[in-house]
């Protein structure tokens, strides 16, 4: 890997600087998560790089040290060190573990669209009125702790600006609803959209209908924390 703008490269470089390690590594990334879709693909690459090189280089850094390094790479990189169902506070790096949301099914649609400097542009478009006091987020966390997931509490401030920035996003949302989606949400800064489904069979049907309409739809299942991660987080 030679792209210095790649987060995995930055993670490796930061780890070398932090530990004074003089060796190196050849890193090959096979992208399975669509890029620039609001799915955290680059951030998860960076977190995986920190975990892998910590082991490969026998650095024996603690989870706390890795979390510190991850926080310097991006607000959501620390999450991918831990995974699972997690509440992120402040800019997202202050994490608390929630009860796992296992075996939930959802349909994800990745639009064939992109804009330059997407994340920067969407954050710049946020206005004071779009910020909340966090009550909805805490209510959602409590809902998850109570073994339920209330769609009405899944609020993303970027939804109010993304549909004016990404061309055709409103059409995709309408198609999802017409095909049977109960509630459609923006993933991160977008442009990916997702909807929860009650059963796998419903998800298969919805995915197939959306693909027939020319969209790139995927059926996904939530998972628990991976054993290779560092799930040493305080509970809510």
Automatic annotation (TrEMBL):
Residues 158-215 form the GHMP kinase C-terminal domain. Pfam families: GHMP_kinases_C (PF08544), GHMP_kinases_N (PF00288). Transmembrane segments: none annotated. GO terms for biological process: terpenoid biosynthetic process. The keyword Transferase applies. It is an enzyme of class 2 (transferase). The keyword Signal does not apply. Residues 6-84 form the GHMP kinase N-terminal domain. Its EC number is 2.7.1.148. SUPFAM superfamilies: GHMP Kinase, C-terminal domain, Ribosomal protein S5 domain 2-like. One of its GO terms (molecular function) is 4-(cytidine 5'-diphospho)-2-C-methyl-D-erythritol kinase activity. Keywords: ATP-binding, Kinase, Nucleotide-binding, Transferase. InterPro entries: GHMP_kinase_C_dom, GHMP_kinase_C_sf, GHMP_kinase_N_dom, IspE, Ribosomal_Su5_D2-typ_SF, Ribsml_uS5_D2-typ_fold_subgr. NCBIfam families: ispE. Belongs to the GHMP kinase family. IspE subfamily. This is 4-(cytidine 5'-diphospho)-2-C-methyl-D-erythritol kinase.
């Amino acid at each position: 890997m030679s792209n210095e703008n790649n987060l995995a490269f930055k993670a490796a470089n930061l780890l070398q600087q932090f530990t004074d390690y003089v060796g190196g590594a050849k890193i090959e990334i096979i992208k399975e998560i669509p890029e620039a879709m609001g799915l955290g693909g680059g951030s998860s690459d960076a977190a995986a790089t920190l975990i892998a090189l910590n082991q490969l280089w026998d650095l024996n850094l603690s989870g706390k040290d890795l979390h510190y390094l991850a926080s310097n790479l991006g607000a959501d990189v620390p999450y991918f060190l831990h995974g699972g169902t997690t509440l992120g506070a402040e800019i997202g790096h202050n994490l608390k573990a929630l009860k796992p949301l296992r075996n939930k099914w959802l349909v994800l649609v990745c639009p064939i669209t992109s804009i330059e400097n997407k994340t920067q542009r969407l954050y710049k478009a946020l206005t004071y009125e779009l910020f909340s006091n966090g009550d909805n987020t805490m209510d959602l966390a409590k809902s998850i702790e109570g073994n339920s997931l209330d769609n009405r509490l899944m609020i993303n401030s970027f939804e109010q600006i993304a549909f004016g920035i990404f061309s055709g996003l409103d059409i995709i949302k309408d198609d999802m609803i017409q095909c049977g989606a109960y509630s459609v949400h923006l993933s991160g800064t977008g442009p990916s959209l997702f909807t929860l489904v009650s059963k796998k069979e419903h998800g298969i049907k919805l995915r197939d209908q959306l693909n027939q309409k020319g969209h790139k739809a995927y059926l996904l299942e939530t998972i628990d924390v991976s054993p290779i991660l560092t799930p040493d987080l305080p509970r809510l």
